[in-house]
């Protein structure tokens, strides 16, 4: 029993200093002329390893569509790192004006022109649609890494 208590105590001591929450990724502004004074926005002149831009868009329905409402954004991902960057439609989410997060996987295959699953070399970019089910106004689009850590966030332009 003493060994179990000692092991649990050691685990508690070792994990007490761990910060399990990540710092939020700065939100890239929707347009260069827009001020960065909004909460969560990046300071002016900030460079991002992954440049992400987004604009509201409409999607053409695919043959797999169930006819429900879709809210979409056209995204452009630019790899500004020195490593390969994986892009996948499942790595995106859209946050609406009511701060509700919508998963892009909910509408996968229901529209044409979705962003491709690909790897971008340094300097390359990919453009395509990201949609989620529901009728809402997109405010922020976020992209995660393959390990589902948030990698980039951007305001959605109208």
What does this protein look like?
- It comes from Actinomadura rugatobispora.
- This is DUF4352 domain-containing protein.
- With 158 residues, this protein is mostly beta strands.
- The protein contains one helix and ten strands.
- The chain has one domain: Sandwich (Immunoglobulin-like).
- The strands form two sheets. Strands 1, 2, 3, 5, 6, 8, 9 and 10 form an eight-stranded mixed β-sheet that branches.
- It starts with a helix and ends with a strand.
- About 10% of the residues have low confidence.
List the helices and strands and how they pair.
Blueprint lengths: L1 H15 L10 E2 L21 E8 L12 E10 L5 E3 L4 E5 L4 E3 L14 E3 L4 E9 L4 E7 L5 E8 L1
Rg over alpha carbons: 19 Å
What structural class should be given to the helix and strand makeup? mainly beta
Shape: globular
Unreliable sequence segments:
13-21, 33-39
Count of β-strands: 10
Assigned CATH class? Mainly Beta
Separation of the first and last Cα atoms? 63 Å
Q: What is the share of helical residues?
A: under 10%
Order of helices and strands: HEEEEEEEEEE
Q: What is the strand content? A: 35-45%
Number of helices: 1
Report the sheet with the most strands, covering strand number, pairing sense and barrel closure: 8 strands, mixed
How many structural domains can be distinguished in the coordinates? Answer: 1
Shape-level CATH architecture: Sandwich
Mean pLDDT: 83
CATH topology name, in short, is Immunoglobulin-like
């Amino acid at each position: 029993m003493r060994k179990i208590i000692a092991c649990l105590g050691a685990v508690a001591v070792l994990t007490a200093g761990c910060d399990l929450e990540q710092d939020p990724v700065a939100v890239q502004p929707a347009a260069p002329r827009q001020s960065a004074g909004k909460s969560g926005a990046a300071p002016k002149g900030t460079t991002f390893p992954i440049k992400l831009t987004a604009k509201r868009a409409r999607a053409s329905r695919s043959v797999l569509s169930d006819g429900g409402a879709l809210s979409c954004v056209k995204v452009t991902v630019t790899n500004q790192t020195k490593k390969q960057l994986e892009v996948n439609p499942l790595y995106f989410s859209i946050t609406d004006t009511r701060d509700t997060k919508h998963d892009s996987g909910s509408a996968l295959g229901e529209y044409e022109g979705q962003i491709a699953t690909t790897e971008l070399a340094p300097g390359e970019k990919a453009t395509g649609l990201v949609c989620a089910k529901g009728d809402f106004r997109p405010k922020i689009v976020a992209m995660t890494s393959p390990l589902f850590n948030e990698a980039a966030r951007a305001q959605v332009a109208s």
